[in-house]
Amino acid sequence: MNNFEFKNPTKIIFGKNTIIKLSTEIPKEAKVLMLYGEGSIKKNGIYEQVTSALSEINFLEFGGIPANPEYAILLNALALIKKEKITYLLAVGGASVIDATKFLASAALFNGVEPWDIIKNKIRTETAMPFGTVLTLPATGSEMNSGAVITRKETGEKLGMGGPGLFPQFSILDPEVIKSIPPRQIQNGIIDAFTHALEQYITYPIEAKLQDRFTESIMQTLIEIAPIITKDTSNYKAACDFMWCCTMALNGLIQKGVPTDWALHTMAHELTAIFGIDHARTLTIIAPSYYQYKFENKKEKLAQYGQRVWGITEGSIEEKATQAIAKTTVYFKELGMPIKLSECTQAYEGTAEKIAATFEKRGWNALGEKKDITPSDVKDIITMSY
């Protein structure tokens, strides 16, 4: 196992009827800006629970944050933060709202002229405005990590940011919110968590046995509960497992001491930026082609994954690895996800070349766990994904 340091300061408040605990987690003297998405919390009862818990706290609201948090919209929220002298932020939503809140927490204390520079210049956020979250849509683990991804529509960019200042102070995880989530978002959440696990696992063996088994357990649990939670979102036991898997898949724990990849996510973000395709669906579009393209580098871990997660016991390393990719592809299909870009758009010609050129322009010439994926490789992988 590689050397590592691990610290996650986020307090998790998990379980039924926990939203009321907002009143004890946010300082009484704070002036709070509550951020949320495009209105679903006002239809499912979450808005009423949150505002009731905040009844003795001074708070304002900012709604309308889209599924891919858009920089131009966030600038309006930033102006409100400064005008009203906000001191605390509260995200009520899924990854998009939480990521938006992280950007705002950083931008609120940023001394530069253009807040986009935080992202463009990869400025690590050491200190930010304090914030908490109420998770309404399990998927990316943003409620317990210090990363965020922001979209800038005018330039066609979808880029990440992060730093130790961007851990939420607390996150409330009430699995009962899952009852109101539409099927498409349940599917997306399962895939988000599953591919987060893959990115931190399908690399090369270093004999980090416990880390491997942590990750395998997340994937096994998601496979087990997927048919349950997609058919019955009111199944509380399955909802608990689903929500906690999503958090654990990207709270930093399973990546410590092991090599991690993230080339799959880097390519997938570009498909969202260009076509507006759901993030989870861009992952399933690229993943089968990606693992086939990097088969020789990844076959040992693919075979281990196939044996331990999918129960593939017969055959050579190469045969087990091949079957593992096939099993994963079938799993994506069974969840109703696309596995080719042509399933989502017919305007895909030239996409591979465009993304490869973008990566070259940005200097992204060495992706993956071995830093051996070039823009030329990116072009070939995305072409395979048509």
Detailed description of the structure:
This protein has 386 residues and is of the alpha/beta class. The chain has helices at 22-25, 46-53, 71-83, 95-107, 117-120, 183-199, 209-231, 236-248, 263-275, 279-293, 295-310, 317-334, 351-362, 375-384, and strands at residues 11-14, 31-36, 58-62, 88-93, 131-135, 147-152, 157-162, 170-173. The longest helix is centred in the middle third of the chain and has 23 residues, at 209-231. It is globular and about 65 Å long. The model has no long low-confidence stretch (mean pLDDT 97).
Please name the CATH topology of the largest domain. Answer: Dehydroquinate synthase-like, alpha domain
Poorly predicted residue ranges: none
Radius of gyration: 20 Å
- Roughly how much helix do the residues carry, as a percent range? 40-55%
Number of domain modules: 2
The name of the CATH superfamily of the largest domain reads Dehydroquinate synthase-like - alpha domain
Number of helices: 14
**Lateral arrangement of strands in the main beta sheet:** 1-8-5-4-2-3
| Secondary structural class | alpha/beta
Order of helices and strands: EHEHEHEHHEEEEHHHHHHHHH
Biggest sheet record: 6 strands, parallel
- What is the overall pLDDT average? 97
Shape: globular
* The first-level CATH class name of the largest domain: Mainly Alpha
Total DSSP E strands = 8
CATH architecture classification name of the largest domain: Up-down Bundle
Distance between the termini: 37 Å
What proportion strand? Answer: 5-15%
